Amino acid sequence: MRFIQSLSETFSREAPKYKTFSLPKHRVDEDYDEKTIFAGEAYCRIWLVEMRLAKDVEWFKKRYAVVHAAVRFNHGGKSVIIPYLAAPGQLEKSIADNLDKVIQCNYPLTSLFPFNDGLVELQTGLFSIANNDSIGKFIKTMGRFSELLPVPQLSSVIKLAEPIYRGIEDLLDIGERRLELGYQQTFSEADGGGSNSLKAGYFAAILAQDNKISSDNLCIVKDSLCLGSPGTTKTFERDGKPLEGYSYMLFRIEKRKQQDWESLETIKELVTQAQNAIYSGEYDKVKKFILPAIEIAILQSPDVAKADRRNMILKIGQELKELGLQSTKVQKRSLYSIMQRPLPEIDAAREAELASLEQLFQQNGQETSL
């Protein structure tokens, strides 16, 4: 938690004046679902889409540009912080002459995580650090480590998060560093009564005074922040020009209805075990041991949204049942293919069984909901 607190204190002391904008859907060239997100019903990922450095001859000659972020959200009933560091080696790939250059990032700051409850907090800063060999090596090392975290099955790497953000925290205390632009925002569930509801779309932090840029002219063209014709038409796609002369960071919240099912290694391996056992005629083993293990793994998985838990149990159960009825061996379906199947009907007995299983997990202190 100290990393989030450290960023907040730094922003309060040092952050220069900046503007924030949430781009409405009609000002974006790509279509997407802009409905606010209810807890337990969707998966999210936060991207650093683009960064622009205002003209400065010091960049990458006398000073390193470092973008680092911390995203905090609930994961499996616990608050977790996912740090990210964009190292100079990555940023320099898009720099030719250090003058007023756009850096096309599209860095995933998080994995695709289920928004099951609570709040999502984003803090990110564009820092510059005085250039020397030891600091440069440290920055690049931490950048490589932070790239390990935005993976689909976040639970498999969550133990790495704390040492990584502590390393980034230590970086802030080394040498001369300067905050160029900072941004922080907290998002909540839909229907919270405010304007900070979590939803898909683009938002930006721009180092500029309020009267310098008109929000009516801002638009997104090919993942780039531009100035174009105002209004609700798509004219800006033709006449939009990159926003120049200002340092800024452009972010995007991605919303998906489904998880990357093939990334859920624990559940996928259990399903494969069950399929192989059925092929071998070990039906009792599947019924008594493997299928209950699959159900428990689903209910315990922090990488599955609440609304998908019951559906996942029912679809996998139906798949294994049908597989056992086949007279000849058929090709095994992947976990992704199973989850694309229609939801099977459920009788009263199965409904009662699932309700009993949910109650059992609640008594044991597990945060589950069917």
Task: Kindly describe this structure.
The structure is a single chain. The chain is of the alpha+beta class. It folds into two domains: 2-256, no CATH class; 264-363, no CATH class. Helix content is 33%, strand content 25%. The chain is built from ten helices and 13 strands. Strands 1, 2, 5, 6, 9 and 13 form a six-stranded antiparallel sheet that branches. Strands 4-3-7-8 form a four-stranded antiparallel sheet. It is elongated, with a radius of gyration of 24 Å. 34% of the residues are buried. Mean pLDDT is 80; it is low at 93-100 and 366-370.
Give a brief description.
With 370 residues, the protein is an alpha+beta fold. The chain has two domains: 2-256, no CATH class; 264-363, no CATH class. It contains ten helices and 13 strands.
Provide the β-strand percentage band: 15-25%
What is the count of helical runs?
A: 10
Low-confidence stretches: 93-100, 366-370
Q: Using the CA coordinates, give the radius of gyration.
A: 24 Å
Please provide the count of β strands. Answer: 13
- Order of helices and strands, N to C? HEEEEHEEEHHEEEEHEEHHHHH
Round the mean pLDDT to the nearest integer and report it: 80
In percent, how helical is the residue content? Answer: 25-40%
Instruction: Characterize the main sheet.
Output: 6 strands, antiparallel
SS-derived structural category: alpha+beta
> What is the molecular shape?
elongated
Oligomer: single chain
The domain count comes to 2
Distance, first to last CA? 31 Å
